[in-house]
Automatic annotation (TrEMBL):
GO terms for cellular component: mitochondrion. It comes from the Eukaryota. InterPro entries: Pept_M3A_M3B. One of its GO terms (biological process) is proteolysis. This is Uncharacterized protein. GO terms for molecular function: metalloendopeptidase activity. The lineage of its organism: Eukaryota, Sar, Alveolata, Dinophyceae, Suessiales. It comes from Polarella glacialis (Dinoflagellate).
Length: 208
């Protein structure tokens, strides 16, 4: 249902606006030395540290695990009793939970692939694993699955938007492919294998 697989990210190609750069250099050349120097000092003034990737509260490596744990907790709360909700409410709850989780997981995935600090890489990797682990649990949650089946078979299913019907159907089919039918003991083993696969995939990418 939910995927959280590592992927190799291509660095964004940097570019130089030559015309703007030449104009800026010409302006400095035509400016008195003292004024140009003061402007250069102002231009390179160190800015205060802000939120990484625009995520509030993400400023240091230790913030990643905390934010991941908070996202998982928010998702758990969102999905509480979801199996008993009407079809449209069920889809909305799953979508809200997914947004909460992916907001942190996507940022962590990017960070652990491109950030120059190994402290950030390590903490971002922990965050990815935490979110992916919870996603794996939901993908094998029998109550969520039964709630989806019940919603699809309900009388109001035909009245919800086509997009919501399609999402619900594909989520249910995806859970069947993920192994929702497995005995509980095998589900535990499946989750452990998925966690190992995640870590091995990331390790391979890091060595390339």
């Amino acid at each position: 249902m939910w995927k959280a697989s590592p992927r190799r990210l291509r660095p964004r190609r940097a570019f130089l606006a030559n015309d703007a750069s030449e104009a800026l250099l010409s302006k400095f050349a035509a400016t008195p030395l003292s004024l140009a120097t003061s402007r250069r000092c102002f231009f390179f003034k160190r800015k205060p540290r802000g939120a990484l990737l625009g995520i509030e509260g993400l400023e240091t490596p230790r913030d990643f695990p905390r934010l991941a744990a908070a996202a998982v907790q928010d998702a758990r709360q969102e999905l509480l009793g979801v199996e008993k909700r009407p079809a449209l409410e069920l889809v909305s709850a799953l979508d809200n939970a997914s947004n909460s989780l992916c907001r942190i997981a996507d940022a962590a995935e990017l960070c652990r692939n491109v950030h120059p600090s190994q402290d950030f890489v390590a903490s971002a990797s922990d965050a990815v694993q935490a979110v992916a682990g919870y996603m794996g649990e939901v993908n094998l949650d029998a109550e969520v699955y039964q709630g989806m089946r019940r919603a699809e078979e309900s009388s109001d299913f035909a009245n919800i938007p086509l997009e919501a019907r399609t999402v619900l159907h594909h989520m249910r089919v995806s859970m069947e492919h993920e192994g929702i039918h497995l005995p509980e003991s095998e589900k535990v083993e499946c989750l452990q294998l998925l966690e190992k696969e995640q870590q091995l995939s990331f390790d391979i990418i890091q060595r390339q």
